[in-house]
Design brief:
It contains 15 helices and 12 strands. The protein is an alpha+beta fold.
Length: 407
């Protein structure tokens, strides 16, 4: 087995004590590496967890891709389209698509004897994916529209229900502003709260046949289709594929097109993470440079002795780089233990809570990924070692004659 002299000497020296001040600085430097790694792990885990949770809530309302009539109408009500069973089968057969559901929308006013509020009715049928709303249901049940029966139930958000002072089982009137005006009575079947107040207060879910009846549409007329994608990362790719399959009168929008301001805001959070990572790495590097210079100064006599015995500058520099490497690795191990420990504790126990009105979540979200942890550790190690190469060459400035005379 090949013998590594720098590693051997560094290992022996690392086990020896230095001055009390040197020990303190070394411990501070090791702690700064540990703190930096822990903060970076927690910061990335929180930001990715927050982005994942918010994206899931946005997608839960509108799925990944929406197909509607090709028009320039920017309101909630677009021109309708006719259902096409052949097109539906073609779209569902595409790779990456796991769900397709028709929908119809209609804007109106919900009114009780005391209060009223604007709302957008979203009509859905038995194919609608209720998993998201089921997970956020506060009371009552979800809608279960039947093929040959018209349901009069309505699923409201908790924000809307509180505003109108409604509970499960109460009656509410819907007024549709058109000529002539229309009025429909619904029974509150369920109340949900996703925590996303902007969208919660906008939509109410009813039977698709109710919206079709209000709009004087037959059973084959809808506002469009919502398409679910297997992986969120494939949304744009699947959308590009489906675009070429659509008739000329239809258009396609991804969830990113429907809510651009929300996704731009989420992407800005990545900038905060990079700022934290850069600051933590800079602090760790500065502390490690200080430690390396102290180690070199304290071992000047040893350096002079090695140089007098014929050791090259590169060999002596390698010894101190190995000593610094051991300190960096020690700090990284501690940092990983602390960072991952805090992350897992928050993920499963939820110690730190949030104001749901301000942050749309009840507690600090955590998303730990192995590749992120590996990249943080590898990046920290490589950057610190690269930065330490220059100060490690400081040994060349130590005079062998002077150090031997002092001895």
């Amino acid at each position: 087995m090949k013998f590594s002299l720098p590693y051997f000497i560094a290992k022996r020296l690392s086990g020896q004590g230095g001055t009390s001040s040197a020990k303190l600085i070394i411990n501070i430097a090791t702690g700064s590496v540990a703190l930096g790694v822990a903060v970076m792990i927690i910061a990335i885990a929180i930001v990715k967890g927050y982005q994942h949770q918010i994206r899931s809530k946005i997608i839960g309302f509108s799925t990944h891709i929406q197909v509607s009539n090709l028009d320039m109408n920017n309101s909630f009500e677009t021109n309708p389209i006719y259902r096409d069973s052949i097109l539906e089968n073609v779209l569902q057969a595409q790779q990456g698509v796991n769900h397709l559901q028709p929908f119809a929308i209609k804007a109106g006013i919900l009114k009780t004897p005391q209060e009223f509020t604007g709302i957008v009715l979203k009509g859905v049928d038995s194919t609608f994916d209720w998993r998201f709303l089921q997970n956020h249901l506060r009371s009552g049940t979800i809608l279960l529209p039947k093929v040959n029966e018209q349901s009069h139930g309505i699923l409201l958000s908790e924000k809307t229900a509180n505003l109108l002072k409604l509970s499960v089982g109460d009656q509410v009137l819907l007024y549709v502003v058109q000529s002539p005006p229309r009025v429909r009575k619904f029974k509150v079947q369920g109340i949900y709260n996703s925590g996303f107040s902007e969208i919660d207060g906008l939509y109410a879910f009813v039977d698709l046949k109710q919206v079709q009846k209000i709009n004087n549409w037959n059973a084959n007329v809808i506002s469009g289709y919502e398409i679910g994608v297997e992986q969120n990362e494939d949304i744009v790719e699947v959308a590009n594929t489906l675009t070429y399959l659509l008739p000329y009168q239809l258009q396609l929008h991804t969830i990113f097109d429907l809510y651009p301001q929300l996704f731009d805001w989420l992407n800005l959070l990545d900038v905060n993470v990079w700022v934290i990572i850069i600051l933590m790495v800079i602090v760790a590097c500065i502390n490690m440079i200080t430690v390396l210079l102290i180690l070199i100064t304290e071992r000047s006599l040893m350096i002079g002795l090695l140089r007098s015995l014929g050791a090259t500058t590169s060999l002596v520099s390698a010894i101190f780089l190995n000593m610094a490497l051991r300190l960096i690795i020690k700090g990284m191990i501690i940092g990983n233990f602390v960072g991952i420990g805090i992350g897992l504790s928050q993920k499963y126990l939820g110690w730190f809570k949030l104001d749901e009105e301000a942050y749309y979540l009840k507690e600090v979200p955590i998303a730990l990924f192995v590749n992120d942890i590996v990249m943080i550790n590898a990046g920290t190690l490589i950057v610190c070692l690269l930065v330490l190469i220059v100060p490690s060459r400081f040994v060349a400035r130590i005079s062998t004659v002077k150090t031997m005379r002092r001895a």
